[in-house]
Amino acid sequence: MPRRDLxxxxxxxxxxxxxxxxxxxxxxxAIVEHGMAMASTVYGDSxxxxxxxxxxxxxxxxxxxxxxxxxxxxxxxxSALYSAYGMYSKGTAGDGxxxxxxxxSGALDAALLSISQGRKARAGSAFxxxxxxxxxxxxxPFTPQPRIxxxxxxxxxxxxxxxxxxxxxxxxxxxxxxxxRWRQITSEGARGGAMYLATLDDSVKSSDIQEMSKQRIYLxxxxxxxxxxYSEYPNVISFEEFFSLHLDPALRRWRV
Length: 256
Known about the structure:
A six-stranded mixed sheet has the order 1-2-3-4-5-6. By secondary structure, it is of the alpha/beta class. The chain folds into two domains: 8-133, no CATH class; 143-255, Restriction Endonuclease. 58% of the residues lie in helices and 9% in strands. It starts with 7 loop residues before the first helix and ends with a helix. It has helices at 8-24, 28-43, 54-86, 93-103, 105-137, 159-164, 206-214, 223-228, 239-255; strands spanning 143-144, 154-156, 170-174, 195-198, 217-221, 236-238.
C-alpha cells in the first residue's frame, strides 16, 4: 500500500518528533563508549590489547553497544512523542496524547521510519568505532575516513603513504551486513593492493565470496564465523588472522 503524503500539521509534527528525539539521543560515540566500558568489566581494562580474543571482544562490544542503543532509543522516543504530541492533545496527560496519536498517525509512521533508517547507520558507525579503538590501542598507524579512490573507513599506514605507494597499503572498510553493497568498495582504494572488508554478516553468498576473491578482496569476520560458516574460503579470514598474517607483516615493511 503506497504511503500517503503528510499534510502540513503532520509534517510539522514529524519534524518536532525527530528534533526532540535527536536532542535527547546519545551520540554514536557515546553509545560505543558504553559498550567499551562494559568490555572493561568483563575482559579487564587492557581489553583493547587482548590480541588473542579480538573477535570475541569485538562481538561483545557491538552487542553491548546495540543493547544500550535500544534502551536509550526507547527512552528518547517516548520523551519525544509525549513532548511533541502533547502540543496537539485536546485532553489532559496520557488521554490527550493518545487522542493526538490517533489524529496524527501519519506523522508517527514517518518519524519511526526515519528513526529506523538512522539505526542502521548508527550500527555501522559503532562497528567502525570499535575497530578504530583496536587499531589505535595496538599501535597501528592509520588514517580514518581517508579521501582516496572512494570512501573506505581506514587506510594503513596513512593517506600520504597511499599517494606514494598505493600498492603497499592496506585499505579497510567495515560493514555490519553486506547484501550487494560490498561491490561499492571495489572503487575504494582502487589503486591499492588487496582490500579488506570486515563484517558480522553470517549469510554472505558463496558466489559473492568467490567474486570478492577475483576482485582481491579479503572478507574479515569474527573467528566464530570463520570456523562455523566460511572455513572453506581462503579469502575469508578472522580478525586474529588479519592482525597476525596481514597487518603485522605490513607494519614491519613500513618501518624499514
